């Protein structure tokens, strides 16, 4: 899913930077505590929703709750922060992010299959671009917040520690612009999966 305009060598360089902390079992095991916390929050949320239901047994729209769980899980790994998808009151930026991902995934096939000339005629192209802009904007803010946090740690003489995003930002393997786009695309892939 990495930028379609990448050549073979560029694609390989970017994949080589992304894969070590994501695909190696030993590295991926480090995410278990993060996912455990997200699963715990999901179970708590499902219990609250179940108890609020009319029959005190049913969770309405379980698929939506599992989507929020997937979103919270992958975001917790990629951005090293919780977005609040499973909270009682979901933050506005998170709702915008969820909506953008949903629109991207919903409109992707339409955009790919319709001829280019339809982009000026039908509204789905504009909606697709807006969804991508919203998604990228929120991802960029989250990444910039992490960069600032890391810079502050360095200024205080602290060791910079973290997980996936910290790793990507700490290496010279990707530019900041490449981190923005690749992490955003990994998010889409993770939510879609």
Short description:
By secondary structure, this protein is mainly α. 70% of the residues lie in helices and 0% in strands.
The major beta sheet can be summarized as: none
Proportion of beta-strand residues: under 5%
The class by helix and strand makeup works out as mainly alpha
Give the number of DSSP strands: 0
Poorly predicted ranges: none
* H and E order: HHHHHHHHH
Distance between the termini: 13 Å
Specify the helix fraction band.
55-70%
Mean pLDDT: 88
Radius of gyration: 19 Å
> How many helices does DSSP assign?
9
Feature tags:
193 residues; mainly alpha; 9 helices; 70% helix; globular
SSE topology sketch:
Blueprint lengths: L7 H11 L1 H4 L1 H4 L3 H21 L9 H17 L13 H22 L10 H32 L8 H7 L5 H17 L1
Helix pairs in contact: 4-5, 5-9, 6-7, 7-9
Characterize the structure shown.
This protein has 193 residues and is mainly α. Helix content is 70%, strand content 0%. The radius of gyration is 19 Å and the shape is globular. The relative contact order is 0.13. The mean pLDDT is 88.
């Amino acid at each position: 899913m990495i930028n379609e305009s990448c050549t073979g060598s560029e694609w390989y360089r970017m994949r080589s930077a992304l894969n070590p902390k994501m695909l190696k079992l030993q590295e991926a095991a480090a995410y278990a505590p993060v996912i455990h916390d997200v699963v715990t929050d999901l179970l708590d949320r499902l219990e609250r929703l179940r108890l609020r239901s009319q029959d005190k047994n049913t969770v309405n729209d379980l698929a939506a709750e599992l989507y929020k769980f997937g979103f919270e899980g992958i975001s917790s790994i990629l951005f090293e922060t919780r977005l609040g998808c499973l909270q009682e009151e979901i933050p506005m930026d998170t709702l915008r992010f969820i909506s953008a991902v949903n629109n991207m995934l919903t409109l992707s096939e339409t955009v790919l299959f319709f001829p280019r000339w339809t982009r000026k005629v039908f509204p789905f192209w504009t909606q697709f671009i807006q969804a991508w802009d919203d998604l990228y904007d929120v991802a960029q803010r989250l990444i910039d917040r992490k960069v600032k946090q890391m810079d502050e740690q360095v200024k205080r003489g602290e060791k910079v520690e973290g997980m996936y995003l910290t790793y990507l930002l700490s290496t010279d393997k990707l530019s900041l612009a490449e981190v923005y786009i690749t992490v955003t695309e990994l998010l889409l892939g993770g939510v879609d999966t």
